[in-house]
Amino acid sequence: xxxxxxxxxxxxxxxxxxxxxxxxxxxxxxxxxxxxxxxxxxxxxxxxxxxxxxxxxxxxxxxxxxxxxxxxxxxxxxxxxxxxxxxxxxxxxxxxxxxxxxxxxxxxxxxxxxxxxxxxxxxxxxxxxxxxxxxxxxxxxxxxxxxxxxxxxxxxxxxxxxxxxxxxxxxxxxxxxxxxxxxxxxxxxxxx
Length: 192
Known about the structure:
Blueprint: H1 36-45, E1 67-70, E2 86-90, H2 92-96, E3 103-107, E4 123-127, E5 137-142, E6 145-154, E7 157-161, E8 170-171, E9 178-188
Antiparallel strand pairs: 1-2, 3-4, 4-9, 5-6, 5-9, 6-7, 7-8
């Protein structure tokens, strides 16, 4: 009786590259059961349209850094005496990141959104889990290029509005491809 080998590599076996939503070869990775949902949600973040190159992701389970949040508001005009009353403690992760697996950060290049307070060199916070609405500032891909603009939606017309009069708006025309990657929720703007 002849023995048949069932082990080893077989040519043409396995998942085809074209079956992957990423268009590339996949590998098997072992993940702790408690982290499975987080890993799957993170992978969903990178499905096409792809997150831009250079995007920074929030840390998974970052340490809590709670700085004092004073109960007194500070005037931007004439100074007033301030209390030393601490109302609470604030962690910037809790303030800036609502849904960590769907959130990433990008450094801004260009000046098309200065009227919205977003300047070149700022870091924007983009949340892919928020449904974009009329007048939201969004990160979009137009014909393969990433841009940050205000989403304007009037009936059948959709355009991406710049917040700088020197930069023209992008009006979607037939044949143009647009995908909104996420909604910009915050801009981190250094003062120096």
